[in-house]
Design a protein that fits this description.
Blueprint (H helix, E strand, L loop, with lengths): L7 H18 L4 H10 L4 H13 L5 H16 L3 H10 L4 H8 L4 H19 L4 H14 L4 H15 L13
Helix pairs in contact: 1-3, 2-3, 4-6, 5-6, 7-8, 7-9, 8-9
Length: about 180
């Protein structure tokens, strides 16, 4: 189906169907819908008209999407604020909205999630030397977007709790 071959009314109806199908699967940003419509061959006027109507109807709300995304990705994937902002920006959410949504994750929640990730990773490390354990734990937290200072503090505390005395981990002041 080539949208250019349809009448303007049919084209708008088909574009709306595409958006509704995508929104039925999960919430989407305006930019995600725009890109999907572009890939399917809809012209800019049709895309922007449909997106405007969906926005006015409250079916597309980047701020609401960002809040839900942050909550879900922090709780289930353990992502830190920095990583959450980056993901939201990649999804087309305005930087200011992304930072505001990620700000809902406070320092304590971020530290608690980092501790959970380190504890879980410690159990799966097996019998590795201290240097390797520290390197792997730092890598785990870095990939999730945790600041270096927080990572060092959490790893040092959790290694002590685990029964090790980290001798090679420098004393960093938390970020």
């Amino acid at each position: 189906m080539n949208p250019e071959e349809l009448s303007p009314e049919e084209r708008a109806k088909k574009a709306k169907e595409v958006c509704f199908d995508l929104l039925a699967a999960r919430p989407r940003t305006k930019d995600e819908l725009r890109q999907a419509l572009r890939r399917k061959g809809f012209d800019e006027d049709t895309r922007e008209t449909i997106l405007g109507k969906l926005d006015n109807a409250g079916l597309v709300d980047d701020a609401a999407f960002a809040e839900v995304w942050v909550r879900s990705r922090h709780n289930h994937q353990g992502l830190a604020r920095h990583a959450l902002v980056a993901e939201l920006k990649r999804k087309g959410v305005d930087a200011e909205i992304a930072v505001q949504a990620a700000g809902e994750v406070d320092r304590e929640a971020e530290e608690q999630k980092a501790r959970e990730l380190v504890r879980k990773r410690l159990r799966s490390l097996g019998n590795v030397d201290e240097q390797t354990a520290i390197r792997r734990l730092l890598g785990t937290l870095a990939r999730k977007g945790y600041p270096q200072g927080l990572s060092y503090t959490v790893i040092r505390d959790e290694l002590r709790e685990f029964g090790a005395e980290p001798t090679t981990l420098p004393d960093y002041v938390p970020d």
